[in-house]
Amino acid sequence: MFWLQLNRVIGYWPVLLKGIGMTLALSALSLLIGVVIGFAFGILRAGPNKALSRVVGLYVDFFRGTPFLVQVFIVFFILPEIGIELSAFTAGVVALSNAAACFIGEIVAAGIQSVPTGQTEAAAASGFTRAQQMRLIVLPQAIRVVTPSLVGQFVLLIKDSSVVSAIGLLDLTRSGWMIVQSVPNGLLVFGIVGIGYFAICYPLIWLSRRMERHGQAPIL
Amino acid sequence: MLGSLNTRVMLEYLPDIWQGFLSTLMLSTTGFAGALTLGIIACALSIQPVRWLRAPATVYIDAVRATPLLAQLYFLYFGLPRLGIVLPEILIGIIVLSLNSGAYVAEIIRSGILAISRGQVEAAISSGMTYLQRMRLIILPQALRPTISPLIGQAIVLVKDSSLLSLISVVELTRAGQMIAIDRFMPIEGLVATALAYLLLYYLLKLLAGIWSHQNRLPGRA
């Protein structure tokens, strides 16, 4: 019985493969956008403009305080009402990269604040402009501090991408959901789905732990 | 858009949202209690010296951390009946939430314990304390204090994660919001009400974390 079912699940390999491809595409694209916007958020958040920092803080809090599933629904149902029609994939990327940016922003802000003010002062005294101070002095040091947490955040992003299956996107979780309709063995089907996620996420978890242990962080 | 938000409908469905809110609260508290229990057990197993007892804890923690909650939820939701175990959705939900958060709780407590300097343990050993005495009198009192803030952080994650239970038709906040959407074709009103209720919980827990860390500042640290 088990082998028969295993055979049937393996027969669905094109669906599983498609699912993994979608999960990877969704995660990679959102990761890229999320990192860029996240760094912008972090710089604004840690920056000298208090009003701007407050506004970014409120925005970030909204998305850190609500479930990702609700955010996916908001993007998918509310944006069309104001005239922005999105495909499920685009909606997924928007929701994922936005959530990622909010979490990455806070990590980056903390990293920037961990750089001693003496560094900025020395840079200012050497005649660096504000942008140069950030780009050449503060960010390179901050990035070293935040890298392990960032990698941990990437893992969360990949896992969160499974929630996007709720709006019908055929990712790895959705492909499992489809297969389980015809092969009624949830342990087997989602065991295989789990192995797929594990293969993607575990190397990143391992990397993040290794970086933490080898003191990637304090050069200061 | 927001100007045309139908507050009358939102008020009309307020009792449903309130029910959902209470349900989310109940799911989160029981889930968190389960997570603390599982987390403490898994952590205890993963730091004790016997190797074959350590292995299952490590497998559990890594398997949970490397797979999404939704896949874990479906794993048990579609899988348990296969083993002849038929449970109500709400119970499956609480079990999955506990199992999932338990792994993160274990990691949080573990990092608290591992942060204690080796000298403390050595001093306790040379004073003739047994393993249990060391744990109870020296290690745990120091280890638990720094874990409170991350544990509250995990509680926030758990509250938000409980929204996924709506996908196996457990009635909680997210589901309650969807009902407005389905009954009245008003997705915005439902989602806004839901989001506000979650934000309330989020800010309450964040406030709690803030008060705790303010009251427990260690001397000489920011």
Characteristic terms for this protein:
heterodimer, A: mainly alpha, MetI-like fold, B: 222 residues, mainly alpha, 10 helices
Overall CATH architecture of chain A = Orthogonal Bundle
Relative strand content of chain A: under 5%
Radius of gyration of chain A: 21 Å
The N- and C-terminal alpha carbons of chain A lie at a distance of 61 Å
Assembly state here?
Answer: heterodimer
CATH homologous superfamily caption of chain A? MetI-like
CATH class of chain A: Mainly Alpha
Which CATH first-tier class of chain B would you pick? Mainly Alpha
The most extensive interface, with participating residues per chain, is:
A-B, 43 and 44 residues
Biggest β-sheet strands, sense, barrel of chain B = none
Structural class of chain B: mainly alpha
Number of helices of chain A: 9
Principal-axes geometry of chain A comes out as: elongated
Per the principal axes of the C-alpha atoms, what is the gross shape of chain B?
flat
Fold-level CATH name of chain A: MetI-like fold
Tell me the series of helices and strands of chain A, N- to C-terminal.
HHHHHHHHH
Number of domains of chain B: 1
Explain what you see:
The complex is a heterodimer of chains A (220) and B (222). Chain A is mainly alpha-helical. Chain A has one domain: MetI-like (MetI-like fold, Orthogonal Bundle). Chain A is 82% helix and 0% strand. Chain A is built from 9 helices and no strands. In chain A, helix 5 crosses helix 7 and helix 6 packs antiparallel against helix 7. Chain A is elongated and about 75 Å long. Chain A starts with a helix and ends in a 7-residue tail after the last helix. Chain B is built from 10 helices and no strands. Chain B is flat, with a radius of gyration of 21 Å. The mean pLDDT of chain B is 90. Chains A and B meet through helix 3, helix 4, helix 7, helix 8 and helix 9 of A and helix 3, helix 4, helix 8, helix 9 and helix 10 of B.
